[in-house]
Write a structure and sequence with these properties.
Order of helices and strands: EHEEEEHEEE
Helix content: 10-25%
Structural class: alpha/beta
Shape: globular
Number of strands: 8
């Protein structure tokens, strides 16, 4: 199991505002917040990977096409949770890459939504259940 992931963002304040609203929808809660980092952990003391965000030292734009992070996938328990994330994403005006749907090219069941956060990082909410 991964202990944590660290992601650099161009605007830590904007990242905090964005992820404070998103992370509870995908099963995370705030862990820490300071001038040089913010972090989220699995909610309710559940085991899992923590996600940290740091201010980027290099002002270049993020690209999922270069070496490094391609996307983050958040596992949720129900298809309704995928739809709830979709509703949130649409309300924030983020770019939806793939509407909630089954992806038969992946081992079933695989019901997911893909979108871009405000910094261009590709995110996914996926449910591995038929409920």
């Amino acid at each position: 199991m991964l202990g944590h992931l660290g992601i650099n963002v161009p605007d830590l304040g904007a990242a905090k505002r964005y992820y404070d609203d998103l992370m509870p929808l995908v099963g995370f809660e705030p862990f820490l917040s300071s001038d040089d980092q913010i972090a989220y952990r699995p909610a309710g003391g559940k085991p899992g990977t923590y996600v940290f965000f740091y201010p980027a030292a290099d002002g270049g734009a993020y690209s999922g096409e270069r070496t490094g992070l391609q996307h983050l996938a958040f596992m949720v328990k129900t298809r309704a949770a995928v739809h709830a994330v979709h509703d949130h994403v649409r309300s924030t005006g983020d770019t939806v890459l793939h509407e909630p749907q089954d992806f038969p090219q992946y081992p079933p069941p695989y019901f997911a939504l893909f979108w871009l956060d405000p910094f261009g990082i590709k995110l996914e909410a996926v449910c591995h259940y038929d409920r």
